[in-house]
Amino acid sequence: LSLCEMAATVAASRSLAKRWLRPAARAWPAACQTLARNLHFTVYGKKNASTKVSDSISTQYPVVDHEFDAVVVGAGGAGLRAAFGLSEAGFNTACVTKLFPTRSHTVAAQGGINAALGNMEDDNWRWHFYDTVKGSDWLGDQDAIHYMTEQAPAAVIELENYGMPFSRTEEGKIYQRAFGGQSLQFGKGGQAHRCCCVADRTGHSLLHTLYGRSLRYDTSYFVEYFALDLLMENGECRGVIALCIEDGTIHRFRAKNTVIATG
Question: Which of 41, 125, 224, 240 has the fewest CB atoms within 10 Å, counting from its CB?
Answer without folding.
Answer: 224
